[in-house]
Amino acid sequence: MIMLHFYDTLCETCVINDIKRHSIKNIELYACVSVGIYNFTMSARNNPKLWGGRFTKEIDPDFHDLNASIKLDKRLYAEDIEGSIAYANALCKAGFLTEEEVHLIENGFEKILAEWRNNLFVITHQDEDIHSANERRLSELIGDVAKKLHTGRSRNDQTITDTRLYLRKSIDKLHLSINIFIKTLIDRAEKDNDVIMPGYTHMQRAQPIKWSHWLLSYAWYAKADLERLQEIRKRVNVLPLGSGAIAGNPFEIDRQFLAANLGFEDISSNSMYAVSDRDFVAEFLFWSSLTMIHLSRLAEDLIIYNSNEFDFVQFSDDFSTGSSLMPQKRNPDLMEIIRGKSGTLLGKCMGFMTTLKGIPSTYNKDLQEDKEALFSTFDTLNNIFFIMEKALKSLKINKEKCSDALTTDMLSTDLAYYLVKKGLPFREAHHLAGKVVNFAESESLSLCEVPLEKLQKICQIFEKDVECIWDFRKSIEQYNVIGGTSTLAVRQQIDSLKHWLRESNI
Q1: Cα–Cα distance, 104 to 139 (Å, whole number)
Q2: Nearest Cα to 182, choosing from 332, 385, 334?
Q3: N or C: which end of the chain has fewer CB within 10 A?
Q4: 296 to each of 180, 303, 320, 345, 359, how far by Cα in Å?
Q5: What residues does 313 pair with on adjacent strands?
Q6: Lowest mean pLDDT among 2-11, 166-175, 466-475
Q7: C-alpha distances in angstroms, 215 versus 72, 346, 425?
Q8: What phi and psi, each to the nearest 5 degrees, are found at residue 484?
Q9: In angstroms, rounded to a whole number, what is the distance separating the alpha carbons of residues 205 and 197?
């Protein structure tokens, strides 16, 4: 009876409901749960919500868990502290904090930053998000001065500022990763510049090309990706802080001062737009999806070239797996994972775009979904660039297999070019070369095995010098135009990419 009286005295209705819902029958366990909820309730009273003044009841515990974003956005601890220190200095400049108070705030945040970095920061149940967690801890360290920090600031402009700071840093990290990736492609292109292989269209052998020419095609994709990323960075690097919740800041906060302190190049011009804008997140997610598609296509090519049917390349054991059943298997799982992740990232982009589509103007809690998509996308993409770069360095090229895959029917275009150089219009030359191909197929001959006499029956312009075109290396070297596959043109590509990297200060 004493224990039951204890329940009645200490437990809220939600405790009783929780006990009933989980069918807790053990009396001691019942008491422990009750005390736990009681402690939570008392903690809530001692550390009220940032928004709790107008409420008379505590938030439902289950709704609290759903509403809280601390598990995700704790990742923004450094950005939140950086923005808060800058805002404290702006408040001081506006006359709402003294220099001593700013110094106190800065020292407090230095301790909090150290706690986060050393995994010593204790997240309480009342910490809804990184903003309330840092502010709560600051209050514990420096007292009531911490309560002045939020003057004129809303979590609406605080969270978007943190997100922009985080994404700016993430873009710079990706910039470096893609830079290294491009350099790896260039290095491999230089190293394997003597390898000739079939080039494919429609997955059919088309024309002979240099291996390096194929590899550099993905370096040009990566260059375009990097240029697009830098354009996105410009739109990310716009300061929203000072926008308040929706209407702006009434305390004459110097936003130019804030922008300079936080390294922003521009300042948002409309407070409603500033707190609701997540276009830069959507743009980054789309960019990531497109970039992953390029990596997926590279992975797909390598998966095909790695197969026994092609055998052009072989992955190192470091980047291959085996079969739990078939001992002979060497599976290109890394490339398959990259190919699969491209679909996952595209899904993140489409999911967040759908979220944006369904909300009205200014800040809505739906926008909290930006963090999961943003964080997981960055982690995936940055990790893939890092691993792909290592895999490419260790990739083995089977030069002989590449050469063996070359067949003279791939020189049928050269046969047409031969006739063009003799004075025939290309369309006529193309038609006649097709007749030669048809004859060779009907007789089960290689194109180079078609007798001169038969060639001359098809077109009298053919002469003995036609034999000169059955040389794959000579065929490649004729494509000297900028962007071609000749040794000179490939060298120009390499030099051009290196120059771009230097000039871009990447």
Answers
A1: 11
A2: 385
A3: N
A4: 18, 10, 17, 11, 33
A5: 397
A6: 2-11
A7: 38, 25, 34
A8: -80, -175
A9: 10
Spatial distance between the Cα atoms of 34 and 115, rounded to a whole number of angstroms: 31
What is the rounded end-to-end Cα distance, in angstroms, of the chain?
Answer: 74
d(CA 150, CA 268): 20
- From the number of C-beta atoms within 10 Å of its C-beta (0-12, 13-18, 19+), residue 83 rates as buried
What CA–CA distance (Å, rounded) separates 139 from 137? 5
**What Å distances lie between residue 388 and 310, 378, 379, 430, 474, CA to CA?**
21, 15, 14, 41, 33
Structure confidence by residue, pLDDT tens digits, 258-275: 999 999 999 999 999 999
DSSP assignment of 45-65, as one string? Answer: HHS--TTGGG-SSPPPHHHHH
Question: Would you please indicate which residues are annotated as catalytic (active-site) residues?
Answer: 202, 323
CB atoms under 10 Å from CB of 376, counted, come to 14
Give the C-alpha separation, 180 to 387, whole Å. 11
- The answer for residues whose C-beta is within 8 angstroms of residue 23's C-beta and 6 or more apart is none
- φ and ψ of 331, to 5 deg: -100, 135
CB 139 within 8 A of CB 146: yes
Strand pairing report for 396-397 and 313-314: antiparallel
Label residue 258 exposed, middle or buried (CB < 10 Å: 0-12, 13-18, 19+).
Answer: buried
Q: Any idea which residue has 């296509």 for tokens?
A: 297
∠ Cα 473 479 480 (to 5°): 110
Helix (H) or strand (E) holding 372: helix 370-394
The string of DSSP letters for 86-141 reads HHHHHHHHTTSS-HHHHHHHHHHHHHHHHHHHTT-----TT--SHHHHHHHHHHHH
The answer for 204, left when phi > 0, alpha when psi is -120 to 50, beta otherwise, is beta
Residue 504, pLDDT score: 79
pTM of the full structure: 0.86
Bridge partners (DSSP) listed for residue 197: 209
Confidence of residue 372 (pLDDT cuts 50, 70, 90): very high
Q: How many angstroms separate the CA atoms of 239 and 260, rounded?
A: 10
In three-state secondary structure terms, 196 is strand
Q: Which of 38-47, 227-236, 330-339 has the highest mean pLDDT?
A: 227-236
By residue count, the chain amounts to 506
- CA geometry: angle 422, 425, 427, nearest 5 deg: 125
* Residue 209 backbone phi and psi in degrees, to 5: -140, 165
**In this structure, how many other beta carbons lie within 10 angstroms of the beta carbon of residue 171?**
19
